[in-house]
Amino acid sequence: HFELFSIFFFILVNFLKLMAFHDDGVCFLSLGEFKSKVVCEGERLRLGCKVGMQIAVYAAMFGRTQQGTLECPPHHQRAPSVDCSSDVALQVMTSRCQGKRSCVVRASTQEFGDPCYHGTHKYLSVIHTCERIRKRSLACFLSNFSHITNI
């Protein structure tokens, strides 16, 4: 499952590097510098952009995959491998960070619910970029005529 998840996000990230999109009538242009951040359960995830830029969240996962992550090993070496992830991770990260210059979100079951069985050591993984707002750009004009515009 994790390999398919990784391949899907690799394709998604590279596709999104080339497109313009709308959010509440404002056009954003991806600058192509996508970043991945991981924090363990109980830690705070900090995202930030330079002046004149804002956060765009593309993917988020809170839970644990069978593959796991080196940053957040399970508490017990004999812990069973699990695949569990929050259904609201992307929604939470988007509502807390999208369009802001910086944000801090705690990787906790209070924020994301508990998608795993009790005692599973979870982590939060986020793919994001910093984008500049471009109003009245050619890409935005063209994207009014089709849902996806390659630049």
UniProtKB/TrEMBL annotation:
Keywords: Hemagglutinin, Lectin, Repeat, Signal
Domain SUEL-type lectin, residue spans: 39-131
A molecular-function term among this protein's GO annotations: carbohydrate binding
Signal peptide: 1-20
Residues in coiled coil: none
Protein name: SUEL-type lectin domain-containing protein
Organism: Cyprinus carpio (Common carp)
